[in-house]
Design brief:
It is built from ten helices and 13 strands. The protein is an alpha/beta fold. The structure holds nicotinamide-adenine-dinucleotide and uridine-diphosphate-N-acetylglucosamine.
């Protein structure tokens, strides 16, 4: 048995962690990624163990032959930023909606065993109660949230009408090694951790009392694997979070304590499209997917901090050896 596993968005932050986990289980992995927000560096030391297709999911004719006959497709390719989807909605609409439709269509046409879709907790918007439960009515607040929600609807409808199995996981704010910290649109923890290492103050949008259920990437990967095999869950949507929440102010205080730093944050205007509070109800994922998060927030932060520090040291050392070669 030598099944093919496809990871769209496999050169990205979460996708590349999933690719490593699939390889560790002995699976054959193909990545589809147009490298728009991802990077082949994320797959560097495993490059010779996988097949990378630098294709765009908006191009059905390119991706369909790769997807056809696969055992499992993990669909993670997307433009993942809330503010980018407001500033420039067309590219994110095209990748996140048109591209997602193409992936499901290719999976149905190609008789794929199951598609696991990376949905988003942003679909909930501002709910009146916390934690957020899958049965709540979605109230998306940004184009990105609408796009990710529509992907869930397509996932369920493809399971209903086109005879393939699908599962949607609503990721809550994911963090960990390889999350790209270099853009103002990057995930807040990648920015906070880089600020901490470089001894700079971060800028917090708004009063910093907004809260998030920050989830360590390895816990999300474990749930992706479970969702790809669990029986009786096709067509369903599950939260993929830890069940906790921290405000940005608490988080920055905790990071300063971990590092023994004193770097008061700066505050800017609130960001359009921002959800105020986010926290997952994990009951359904625990019951139906045997979800069992392994990492506390602080453990995840420490592991990620170590990774960014080592990565920075690696980059500085290769820059130095480059300079030596030139001189
Ligand atoms: P990422 O930007 O690191 O990864 C996304 C990957 O998709 C990148 O490698 C990018 O190059 C690729 N991609 C984008 N558009 C593409 C296209 N048209 N064709 C082919 N490849 C394309 O982001 P991430 O944080 O790893 O997010 C992965 C998935 O998880 C996304 O679907 C995102 O919406 C979802 N998600 C992420 C979070 C989070 O907190 N990071 C939370 C909820 C949902
Ligand atoms: C994030 C994900 C999104 C996912 C969603 C699910 C990223 C880039 N976005 O969106 O894909 O679907 O979680 O919950 O991973 N902030 C600052 N200062 C900064 C950067 C951000 O204060 O320098 C604030 C933001 O205004 C926001 C919070 O931090 O209030 C989180 O922002 P961000 O990390 O971009 O994540 P979400 O918008 O929650």
């Amino acid at each position: 048995m030598n099944h093919r596993y496809i990871v769209t968005g496999g050169a990205g932050f979460i996708g590349s962690a999933l690719v490593r986990a699939l390889l560790a289980r002995g699976h054959r992995v193909h990545v589809i990624d147009n490298l728009s927000t991802g990077n082949l560096n994320n797959l560097e030391e495993i490059a010779d163990q996988i097949t990378v297709h630098e294709y765009d999911i908006r191009d059905y004719n390119r991706i369909a032959p790769v997807i056809a006959g696969a055992h499992r497709v993990f669909h993670l390719a997307a433009l993942p930023s809330v503010p980018k989807s407001i500033l420039n909605p067309v590219p994110s609409h095209e990748s996140n909606i048109d591209g997602t439709f193409n992936v499901f269509l290719a999976a149905a046409d190609g008789k794929v065993g199951r598609v696991v879709y990376a949905a988003s907790s942003s679909a909930y918007g501002d709910t009146e109660v916390l934690p957020k439960v899958e049965t709540m009515t979605p109230r998306p607040k940004s184009p990105y949230a609408v796009q990710k929600l529509l992907g869930e609807y397509y996932a369920s409808v493809f399971a209903e009408c086109f005879g393939i199995e699908t599962v949607s996981l609503r990721f809550f704010n994911v963090f960990g090694p390889r999350q790209d910290p270099t853009s103002v649109y990057s995930g807040v923890l990648s920015i906070f951790l880089t600020c901490l290492i470089e001894q700079r103050s971060p800028t917090i949008n708004g009063d910093g009392e907004q809260s998030r259920d920050f989830t360590y990437v390895e816990d999300v990967v474990a749930l992706l694997l479970k969702a790809s095999e669990a029986p009786g869950v096709s067509g369903k949507v599950f939260n993929a979070g830890n069940g906790n929440r921290y405000t940005l102010n608490e988080t920055w205080r905790l990071l300063q304590k971990i590092e023994g730093a004193d770097l008061p944050a700066q505050y800017g205007p609130p960001r359009p499209g921002d959800v105020r509070d986010s926290q997952a109800d994990t009951t359904a994922a625990v019951r139906e997917l045997a979800h069992a998060p392994q990492f506390t927030f602080e453990q995840g932060l420490r592991l990620t901090l170590d990774w960014y520090r080592a990565d920075l040291a690696r980059k500085q050392s290769s820059a130095r050896s480059g300079a030596t070669l030139v001189s």
